[in-house]
Amino acid sequence: MSDLNKLTIAEARDALRKGETTSVALTEACLAAIDGADALGAFAHKTPELALERAKAADARVAAGDAPDMCGIPVGIKDLFCTEGVPSQAASKILEGFLPQYESTVSGQLKDAGAVMLGKLNMDEFAMGSSNETSVYGNAVNPWKAGNGDDLLTPGGSSGGSASAVAADLCLAATGTDTGGSIRQPAAFTGTVGLKPTYGRCSRWGIVAFASSLDQAGPMTKTVRDAAIMGRAMMGHDPKDSTSADLAVPDFEAMLTGDIRGKVIGIPKEYRMDGMPEEIEKLWHQGAEMLKDAGAEIRDISLPHTKYALPTYYVIAPAEASSNLARYDGVRFGHRAKLAQGDGITEMYEKTRAEGFGPEVKRRVMVGTYVLSAGFYDAYYNRARKVRALIKKDFDDVFAAGVDSILTPATPSAAFELGKEVSDPVEMYLNDVFTVTVNLAGLPGVAVPTGLDRQGLPLGLQLIGRPWEEGDLLNTAYALENAAQFVAKPAKWW
């Protein structure tokens, strides 16, 4: 078999079981692709020796007939996941030199399932960003280019390295994390599938925290079927995480029938934003027609508190970040600033944090500290928590009225040029306008590539599901994927 790195998880799994290829061959194909793709900046830490070691072990399991679905599948792990003995920096200078002596639950579950880790993937520093331009490693780059242009485009953020690596066939799939859209927005920008599970489906233990009540890990894959396969391997109850749900994880792949007859798909009027590009509006309408043709009922719905979602998110997320990032002080691990004669512990904290954190992280820590301060706690943080409850109630009411899932755009535009929006943080934050509500309400959401814009760049649609019903959500996404027939790939330039 040729072009092994271009296989999907399902194709590779079936080929492994039939003896048509080996995990070592799959891994070597991916490692060769990674070595030839430094221009994309997708991989921050390569682990070829470890990958081949795990691939050989996976081949032994396949030969013995003890092969879970992910056994032998080469994947990339976002740098936010702690991986035993492998640098885990969250793309920040302040965690320079940090080698965890333990494995995050999610990466550990993939390891136990026989998945092969190729290395750690680039991301925005501490997952704070929408374009992968805040990383200490430098930018991750989208493998897609606009028309005949040479401008480098963002792969989205914060899981930009994961999206870029999957789109460019450097790995068969990757882990991502989603705090306000950081799986779904990069997936939409790169023509890949990104699943953000219900809050509590995937353990957060061993994942470097950004905003604890919003963070959720999920798979980034080439197809909806692959998201079902990898998602199941990543999910499950973890007693080490107090927010982990003690619920059985169904076989999502077995639920992919494509039959959505009788399902009710909601179209929220509040997502029709002023200034929305015509192409996004047209794609949204086409997506609704595709689902209608597949037998679903399309129903107009209202989520009245949507307009408050972005300001609510940008109070709650920085507040939780300022608390979570207080532990990075140069005392126990990571970077420590050089001190002058007579400097005490206060100077060490100040210098270490000033050197270790990038501008976007500092901005959010300061915003978070401000909204949690004594004089502003009620005015900002408590009010944001109350609005969050109203946003969640909007969704609860819609689902109680019989809606099965909700169709929206995934992003307000196609991928933009690197450097274009960095100077205006508010403009950058608007990239999350369609995705943050899902995190605030703790719901599952999936981005599915559905079309190309006039410059040949991928555009995605988002489906939002009922809590804990990822299987039903993925089946609707599968029907949309089948109807859209998105098969475009970026032309190789790197």
Task: Output the keywords.
494 residues; alpha/beta; globular; eleven-stranded mixed beta sheet; Amidase signature (AS) enzymes; 15 helices
In CATH, the topology is named Amidase signature (AS) enzymes
Helix proportion range = 25-40%
State the low-pLDDT regions, or none.
Answer: none
The total number of structural domains is 1
The SS-based structural class is alpha/beta
Which helices and strands occur, and which strands form pairs?
Layout: H1 9-18, H2 23-35, E1 43-46, H3 48-63, E2 74-78, H4 105-112, E3 116-121, H5 160-167, E4 173-178, H6 184-190, E5 193-196, E6 216-221, H7 224-234, E7 264-268, H8 278-293, E8 297-301, H9 309-324, H10 345-356, H11 359-372, H12 377-400, E9 405-409, H13 425-429, H14 436-441, E10 445-452, E11 458-465, H15 470-484
Parallel strand pairs: 2-3, 2-4, 7-8, 7-9
Antiparallel strand pairs: 1-3, 4-6, 5-6, 5-10, 9-11, 10-11
